[in-house]
Amino acid sequence: MNKILALTLLIPISACSIGADKYMHATAGLITAATGKNIGFTNKQACAASLAIGVAKEIVDPIFSLPDVIATAVVCVPLLLTKENE
Predict the structure, then answer these.
(1) Which of 48, 74, 75, 76 registers the highest number of CB atoms within 10 A of its CB?
(2) What is the pLDDT of residue 78?
(3) 25 contacts 72 by C-beta, under 8 angstroms
(4) Does residue 86 sit within a domain?
(5) Are 22 and 67 in contact (CB under 8 A)?
(6) Are 29 and 72 in contact (CB under 8 A)?
(7) How far apart are CA 69 and CA 79, in angstroms?
(8) Average pLDDT, consecutive stretches of 10 residues, N- to C-terminus, the chain (86 residues)
(9) Alpha-carbon distance 67 to 40, whole Å?
(10) Total domain count, the chain
(11) 75 is a domain residue
């Protein structure tokens, strides 16, 4: 989990180029994945939860934004690159 946190802390560095909205989406994805991991989700399940939150939020919005979904699910990158037992 420490690697996940370290990798996702890089998000604020790129917030200037991706905008505050995408940063908030990424934060929501990180919180969702971290909560899932704390209640026993596997890395894939935590990634799926983040992706589901991103899609659900965009379904509610008047205009569906794929970049917003991607920003929410950005936490999947370190999750899926990390071994399950770490």
Answers:
(1) 75
(2) 84
(3) yes
(4) no
(5) yes
(6) yes
(7) 16
(8) 56 57 88 93 93 93 90 86 69
(9) 28
(10) 1
(11) yes
Q: Which residue has the tokens 């989406």?
A: 25
What pLDDT is recorded for position 81? 83
Residue 76 lies in a domain: yes
Residue type (1 letter), 26: A
DSSP state of 40: T
- CA-wise closest residue to 8 among 58, 53, 50: 50
Does residue 64 lie within any of the structural domains? yes
Give pTM, 2 decimals.
0.73
Q: How far apart are CA 10 and CA 13, in angstroms?
A: 5
Expressed as residue numbers, the domain containing 22 is 2-81
